[in-house]
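Hi there,

I know you've been waiting on this one. I reran it after we fixed the sequence typo, so this is the corrected version. Both the input and the resulting structure follow.
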Amino acid sequence: MKFGTLTLKKKIAILITSAVFVIGVAAWLILYRTERNDSIEYTQTMLSRYLDLMALSGEKGGAEEVKELSDIWTALYPDGRVTVVSITGDVLLDTKADPSRMENHYTRGEVMAAFADGEGSELRYSKTQREWQIYMAKRVTLPDASEKAFVVRLSYPVAKLSGLIKNVTLPFIKYFSLLLIFVWLGTYLLLRLIMKPLNSLSRAASLIARGEPARFPITDDGEIQELSKTLNYMRDSLQKSILEARERKEELAQLVGALPIGVILIDDDRKIRYINQAAGAIICGSAELPARGSSVELILPSRELYQMLDEEDAKKTLSIMRGGTAAMLVEATTLILPRGRLIVLQDLTEKLRLEELRRDFFIDAGHEFQTPLTIIRTGLELLKGSPAMKSPGSAEEAETIESLLRQQERISGLVDDLLLLVRLDSAPASRATEKISLAELARDIAEELSALPRGEDIEIEISAPEEAAVSGIYGDLRRALFNLMENAQKYIQSENKSGGKIKVSVVKAGESWKIIVDDNGPGVPEEERKLIFERFRRGDSHRARRKKSGGYGLGLSISRRVAERHGGSLELGDSELGGAAFVISLPECSGSR
């Protein structure tokens, strides 16, 4: 069993026991070392006194005198041993063994030290005696024959060091075991005292985790009491956060459920986590919602919708079969937290139906307007050419007829613009395209505008490379560029100033051509720059409606829609001439390089 898997109580018990055991071993080592040092010191003192006596006897009577004294010493100390070693290392005398069978002792540490320094000692384990011995040696020199010097060595077991461990260990184990029992008992009581309030906290935490009403108990212990107060504060804060989260979740569910669009939230396994009533009605055709956790593939009515689950974030308009053909706007978004996908569905069937009704209305109304307008124009032209209009007093009536004809032309132009917008919005993009030279197109429109009244007073500059060409519908592109250049001419005329100028530039921008129509007219104020492309919106404060020029605010809308249908765009840029600069971007014609 790993230490990390043990309970806190067992961990504390093991740690305390280990600490006591380490302290006990350290105490045993200290006690043993003290006893050992005392025993060695006592033995060395005793041997030193007898060794001095034997050395003194040897100096007076030689080795024979040492032998007599050794017999007395071994009788007093049977465990002791006397050895006499010659200067050549031969053993001359030994009280424990036959000297003739003993090996040369010159290499013994204490013998070498004695011959060199006069005295020597060493502590080592004797293999022959099988116990620890203290060896002390002293050189003896005869006064008349120094070459016959020898060493007297005494050895004695250090309180039988081989048994010292046993003598020290057995009593120590006895008392240490008794101490360990008391430590375990104290540890048990201490852990019980500590764990009792902790167990109460644990039980309270378990109840809270199961959602049952509970609080952490307050004990008399200061530290546990502070812990309980902190946990209760955390519990109250958590309960409050959970309550607020539930309220927000309910509010969000009600809000999403009330949305007219469908919302489906799925996880990484494509299991439904949430679906509102609108999504159920759009996909399933009924208000009965699929169960939470069911597979979303089972309810998807379209293969294209199913394939969107494997694609990147996308937004598509799809047609599905559900009791007929229905149009649906689908937006799939990847979520990070929580992980999954958000599918937003919007049923466009009714919207498209209303759009079709609106388109049919404009088409029918436009055709209905054209008939009376044509009749009115025919009548006015007949009246204008009648003999009565040639009399001297009919100048005022003739001017009135001219004014009526101009208003009829404006209304007829408005109807044509509305019908064109309807066609651009509804009809699919035509594939009957052709290669159109932008330079020729700009020059053609410039010639037409110059022929208009007061057109000769405005300079039109064309700057376009001959290779500039796009692929498109000539009539639509001509109408878009004509609207921009005509607008520039009208607003310059509205200022009634000389020196009017229109500059049309065609420049290359990557894979596109840009047509820039710039003028030195009144320009467009900043607050109206985002509004002028909306239908029936004009810059009334700075442009020319108050001067009775310009149309009904459909020209720029038509031009932008034409540019978009050709894969391009129309934006308002920065003017170099101080007026308004409109920029049409169109993809270049393939093979035009």
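Quick highlight: The first helix runs from residue 8 to 76.

Best,
R. S.
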